[in-house]
Amino acid sequence: MSTSGTYSFNPSLGEVSIFAYQLIGIRPTALLMEHMDAARVATNMMFARWSNQGVNLWTVEFVTVPLVQGTSSYSVPANAVVMLDAYITTTTGTQSIDRVILPVSRTEYMSYPNKAQQGFPTTFWFDRQLSPTFTLWPVPDGTQTSLTYAYVSRIQDANLVGTQEMDIPPIWLEAMVYGLAYRLAQIWAPDKVVMMKPMADESYEIAAAQNVETAAYYLSPQISGYFR
Predict the structure, then answer these.
(1) Residues of the chain scoring pLDDT < 70
(2) 111 & 199 share domain
(3) Chain centroid offset of residue 156 CA
(4) The pTM is what?
């Protein structure tokens, strides 16, 4: 059997936009600059929605922040959508120990009577502002070295610049092109909207179903109280 032996198919936004227009009945020879600009805006609006809809595994980033005694709040990259897991590292000599800390809500953080209390941090509050921060409690007392956390980043901007690729895995291309065609149909081919909507939804659901970690998950109810 003769096959290509390659896995490099990853078209640019321009190529995908042309195909999306073909799906709604607009031939490449009919495309104008305004068509392509609409495709660029629609793509970035769609990527913003995808960032809101859930954890996109390919956009998860890791950051390590040095901790300072008495400092409770630290900045988070502006492209962060939400913080995920976090752990504190304590170093003694040459040995480092990691301990997971847990997120709390604004309401729970506000309920702490002494927000300046120092100790080993056990919780963090992610303040989702335009310039986001996270706040630790208790406040680091100087025995902790750093905090490492994972966060979901926004999907990078899509541009019509040369052969610039999009910030999505190739297996998401079908979801992207059908989602784009649906949005473009709302502008250029309203009669195709009803047809494109279920196709866009189905392709997204298929891609999203694979966008998960495959580790086992266990629920262990605490029933020891029944056997005292």
Answers:
(1) 220, 222-228
(2) no
(3) 10
(4) 0.87
